[in-house]
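Hi team,

As requested, here is the filled-out complex form for the protoporphyrin IX containing FE run. I kept the field names the same as last time so the parser does not choke. Let me know if anything looks off before we queue the next batch.

— J.
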Amino acid sequence: MNIDSKNRYGRVSKFLHWSMALLITWQLLKFADRISDGEHWVGQTLVP
Ligand code: HEM
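And here is what came back:
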């Protein structure tokens, strides 16, 4: 259950995977927010 088996990932791996997914999503949202606020070089140079 908690540890990985040959057939499926356990709770620990699933927790780490979804924590990673949350952090990456948060990071992308923050990135988009900074672009739309005009605080990021991507928005200032590439978007125009
Ligand atoms: C925004 C980030 C991510 C999202 C939204 C995401 C989402 C998902 C989803 C929906 C699945 C299918 C789950 C299932 O079938 O039960 C999956 C599987 C998987 N993900 Fe991610 N993931 C993310 C990041 C990552 C990263 C960074 C890695 C590796 C470094 C990773 C490795 C895997 C692997 C190996 C599987 C297959 C699991 C299996 O075979 O049961 N994922 N992911």
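Two things worth flagging: The mean pLDDT is 93. Residues 9, 17, 20-21, 24-25 surround protoporphyrin IX containing FE (CB under 6 Å).

Thanks,
J.
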